[in-house]
């Protein structure tokens, strides 16, 4: 009997390992989580140095522990924004990339993207590079990293070179979607415009499958329909963009609510927020053909979603989606498991959060049978909060 109890306790400890939480200081905010190719995690975040200066820090999770945080850059003219915040990305091996936004002029929306790379797992970083070479003052942001078809570092971003410097101006030009790649030998290659008219301030998303790159972003047509577009590229060409679903959400301004793609091999899924006819909802759709088409959407929310979705595969047949949802008295981060057959588990409340923008875009990534969640809260100062939950808690 004692031997049986020991075995059961051993199996329980293996199935629910005690994972470390990152050590955060007051003044930390806007975490970005990403998985590494060896089953760990990277996280970047802003940390306040003093009343005017910030640093961009990072840490790696391996073997159930977070490393001591290190600085990527500091005391720069950062553009600090709750929705468009820095990221870190594992290219492969010991190669890592990171990005931030840096002010380029006196205008409120004058800022550039800065990208750095490390080929020794963060021991040192390259000088910052700018993926856009237009040289114009204006908005450049909402960057997403990916591995391109040559396995180099790929980037897409929203580019405001054709917009005026002020959103208060009537009749300002269109926001564009651009793409480029970079490698250690050649640096940044020539940028390429993918779409000439997109929504101005919604996050983008990108994934790679065996035969294609899949990009997702919020479109903007001449009648102010702002649905989520899919753009699929192969080694040879990019197809015409198409709406993942015709929500027909007509809205005069940007909702600051972007889509999230996730891939597992050639399995692809997308989650997004929409609100046609004043009805807010969070939807999810699967693709069985590497993004060439998507199935009909599955509605996930509980009737009062705010959005800010995240998405990850937890098995070849299931994904987990997270979003922010309001109730009668609270605002909460919630998450649910969705199967490819369309079944949805009851959403699980991760944490109650403060209403408004302070929480940013809550983050979520899978390690083994655990999910790491991270978000920002405001006490005396901003502070990143995080927790691990076993996937079994959501079933």
Secondary structure: elements and pairs:
Elements: H1 2-15, E1 28-35, E2 41-48, E3 54-62, E4 65-66, E5 70-74, E6 87-92, E7 95-103, E8 111-118, E9 140-147, E10 153-159, E11 175-183, E12 187-188, E13 192-198, E14 205-208, E15 213-218, E16 228-233, E17 242-243, E18 260-264, E19 267-274, E20 281-287, E21 298-299, E22 305-315, E23 318-326, E24 331-339, E25 348-353, E26 363-367, E27 370-378, E28 382-390
Antiparallel strand pairs: 1-2, 2-3, 3-4, 3-5, 6-7, 7-8, 9-10, 10-11, 11-12, 11-13, 14-15, 15-16, 16-17, 18-19, 19-20, 20-21, 22-23, 23-24, 24-25, 26-27, 27-28
Helical content band: under 10%
Count of alpha and pi helical runs:
1
End-to-end separation: 30 Å
Strand content: over 45%
Major β-sheet annotation: 5 strands, antiparallel
**Rounded to an integer, what's the Rg over CA atoms?**
21 Å
Q: What is the H/E order?
A: HEEEEEEEEEEEEEEEEEEEEEEEEEEEE
Overall shape: globular
Q: Please, what is the average pLDDT?
A: 93
Which structural category fits the helices and strands?
mainly beta
* Low confidence ranges: 4-15, 166-171
> Care to count the β-strands?
28
